[in-house]
Amino acid sequence: MKKLILLIFLSCLLFSCGSSKSTSSSKTTKVERSSKGKTSKKSESIISYAKTFKGTRYKFGGTSKKGMDCSGLVYTSFLKEKVSLPRVSRDMAKKGKKVSKDKISKGDLVFFKTNKNRNVINHVGLVVESKRGNILFIHSTSSRGVIISSLDEKYWRNAFVSGRRVL
What string of DSSP letters covers 91-142? Predict the structure, then answer.
């Protein structure tokens, strides 16, 4: 029994947010940013809603206060504003416009490869602040649940793959 529990736990860590429940998608809503790069009201609302999940425990495939995974957090937060994204982080990474690290701003998505054994995007976060190159993002980790981290932290800096702007 202990081996089975350990196997399930390791599977969750291995696949993290790379795969989860499927959901049907609807039409994506797009919002333009001002020419000065200011965050739209829709982005602010998405960020604000995502922050309400701070402290929520990690649950593979979760999309509620009972438990949340990284792509579930992003998916649920955008859906509240009627912006439909794929449910899986590696599919989310194909949406929107690629943004260089120095141009990332609030409301953008940041993508990571956290599994050294698999060369695929398996983690996503939502940028909640970007000032003078200091990028903070909200995401769900298997060890600490929904938290805000900095892209300056060594682990996230080394795992970072790209930024995407979907609004």
Answer: HHTTSSEEE-GGG--TT-EEEE---TTS-S--EEEEEEEEETTEEEEEEEET
- Is 52 part of any domain? yes
- The one catalytic residue in 46, 47, 50, 70 is 70
Is 10 part of the annotated catalytic residue set? Answer: no
CATH number for position 131:
3.90.1720.10
Number of domains comprising the chain: 1
Is 80 annotated as catalytic?
Answer: no
Active site residue 139: yes
Question: What is the pLDDT tens value at each position of the chain, 167 positions in all?
Answer: 555 443 443 344 334 454 333 333 333 333 334 334 456 899 999 999 999 999 999 999 999 999 999 999 999 999 999 999 999 999 999 999 999 999 999 999 999 999 988 999 999 999 999 998 899 999 999 999 999 999 999 999 999 999 999 99
Tell me the whole-structure pTM to 2 decimals: 0.79
Q: Which domain holds residue 105?
A: 39-165
